[in-house]
Amino acid sequence: MKTSKLFLILPLIGMLSCGKAKTEDKGTEAATTEVSVTIKGSDTVLPLAQKEAEELMKTNSGVSVTVVGGGSGVGITAMIDGTTDIAMASRDLKTEEKMKFADEKVEIEQVIIAYDALTVIVNPANKVSKLTREQLEQIFTGAIKNWKEVGGADEKIVAYSRESSSGTYEFFKDEVMDKKNYATDILNLPATGAIVQAVGQTKGAIGYIGLAYETKEVKQLAVSYDQGKTFIEPSVASAKDKSYPISRPLFYMFDKKNAAKVKTVVDYALSAEGQKIVAEVGYIPLN
């Protein structure tokens, strides 16, 4: 499996700006960019959007793109407030969000730009290498509290989750926890990179991340959705052939009235070059 090692990113602490610097022309004033696009939202989509923005601006001097993380909910709220051109999301719109857009008479376009295999991770020192969906549900709802209950050492489980504004938080709750509530002692962190760091430094830890964030500092688990008969490891290949059960689409969302403004960015994400970057970052291309 090819994975990409990423620097830890704390998007709520600082803004990641990919704006292209203006260029000097023989002493004249810097040229003004023609289009400036802001992308905000999902930490899962963040490394992909960042890389695509960088590559797009290398060949399009008239386009400036700024990318900001914070979670799918943050991006969608910003879109509702009109403070971002594109919302990155690792989940679909909620009913209440659709109602808000309807109330504002805003029509939203949702474009799938890639797919992700949501990865459950533990500390490399943990001898547990696989869990069933039911065991994951019980761990994150607090019913299972010690690794010895799932074949591991006699050690307290320290479970890490994203915050509720995260699309990954919502997706994990819906698809893995069968819509049950997280335990009250779950440790919520503001960014995916923070979960990687925490799990890598805590022997009894467990968490979940997007596939592109997987590194050697953590160990990914195989997961079973058939009561332990078959365990599948997350990978580009297993997500592509749909054998890995925790896969999901990644979205760009935007107000249809802004379609012309964001067209260059969206078209690049869907192009052969953009989809090549999807694979390089560690996600699953559309084709």
Provide the gyration radius in Å.
20 Å
Distance between the termini: 18 Å
Shape: globular
- Name the average pLDDT: 90
Order of helices and strands: EHEHEHEEEHEHEHEEEHEHH
Strand content: 15-25%
Q: Which strand order does the major sheet show? A: 2-1-3-12-4
Main sheet record? 5 strands, mixed
Model regions low in confidence, pLDDT < 50 over at least 5 residues: 1-31
Number of helices: 9
How many strands?
12
Structural category is alpha/beta
The percent range for helix content is: 25-40%
Report on the structure:
There is one protein chain. By secondary structure, the protein is an alpha/beta fold. It has nine helices and twelve strands. The strands form three sheets. The chain has a five-stranded mixed sheet. Strands 8-7-9-5-10 form a five-stranded mixed sheet. It has a two-stranded parallel ribbon with strand order 6-11. Helix 5 (167-175) links the parallel strand 7 and strand 8. Helix 1 packs across helix 9 and helix 8 (259-270) crosses helix 9 (272-281). The chain is globular, with a radius of gyration of 20 Å. It starts with 34 loop residues before the first strand and ends in a 6-residue tail after the last helix.
Which key terms come to mind for this protein?
disordered N terminus, 287 residues, alpha/beta, five-stranded mixed beta sheet, 9 helices, single chain, 12 strands
Question: Strands, helices and their partners?
Answer:
Elements (H helix, E strand, L loop, with lengths): L34 E7 L4 H14 L3 E6 L3 H10 L4 E4 L5 H9 L4 E10 L1 E4 L7 E3 H9 L16 E5 L4 H9 L11 E3 L2 H10 L3 E5 L9 E2 L1 E3 L11 H5 L6 E9 L3 H12 L1 H10 L6
Parallel strand pairs: 1-2, 1-3, 6-11, 7-8, 7-9
Antiparallel strand pairs: 3-12, 4-12, 5-9, 5-10
Helix pairs in contact: 1-9, 8-9
